[in-house]
Amino acid sequence: VPRAVVYALGLAAFAVGYLGLGLVDSAGPLVFVLVAVYGLFPALTDGVGKAWISATVGDKTLLKKHERVLVVTDATVKKAGLVDGVLASLGARAVLVDDGCVADGDTAHVEALAARAKEAGVTALCAVGGGSVMDSAKGVGAVLATGKTLHELEGVAKVRARLLPLVCVPTTAGTGSEATQFAVIKDQAAREKRIL
């Protein structure tokens, strides 16, 4: 099946699923776990609370097949206890937990984290936080998959490699980073944002 057909069908399925879940009109606080499918279109699961996350993330997503998971978050989310359910769900499979993400991400941090993940033999990623955390996890995945720097990957369709599975657990209602393949990460030294 041509890739364009798969993308078109995936986009249609995602749109129907998104609208069918009533997310547009949802007023309550929901937690969405998105799992990358075919590298572009996410599958969506929703639920509320730590108990739901603990029962879902490790055993009912792509992470169930992986023994070496990197959990990416930030200090505020970790301090608030929002990552606890994910860690409980993953148990010893969470071989690396990083809470160093900052607003807008940071290219130096992402590239250093990718090096640590490679050294740890990570086979899947889990992002718990807002858009910057999810974009940082995407950046780690892109660097791991290609062996290139974020500067080399900047631009549209530059990441031409199969990425590690990524599960996102959004803790904010923001830009929707969990639903796209794109990421924006700030290069602090150059004072520029890198768009992948």
Give the helices and strands, then pairings.
Blueprint lengths: L2 H18 L10 E7 L3 E7 L1 H8 L12 E4 L2 H5 L4 H7 L3 E5 L8 H14 L3 E6 L1 H16 L3 H4 L12 E5 L13 E4 L4 E4 L1
Parallel strand pairs: 3-4, 3-5, 5-6
Antiparallel strand pairs: 1-2, 1-6, 7-8
Helix pairs in contact: 2-4, 5-6
- Choose one word for the global shape: globular
Largest sheet: 6 strands, mixed
> Proportion of β residues?
15-25%
Number of helices: 7
Structure characteristics:
single chain; 196 residues; 6-stranded mixed sheet; two-stranded antiparallel ribbon; 8 strands; globular
Explain what you see.
The protein has 7 helices and 8 strands, in the order H-E-E-H-E-H-H-E-H-E-H-H-E-E-E. The strands form 2 sheets. It has a 6-stranded mixed beta sheet with strand order 2-1-6-5-3-4, with helices on both faces. A two-stranded antiparallel sheet has the order 7-8. Helix 2 (49-56) packs parallel to helix 4 (84-90) and helix 5 crosses helix 6. The chain is globular, with a radius of gyration of 16 Å. It is 37% helix and 21% strand. It has helices at 3-20, 49-56, 75-79, 84-90, 107-120, 131-146, 150-153; strands spanning 31-37, 41-47, 69-72, 94-98, 124-129, 166-170, 184-187, 192-195. It is of the alpha/beta class and 196 residues long.
How would you summarize this macromolecular structure in one to three sentences?
This protein has 196 residues and is an alpha/beta fold.
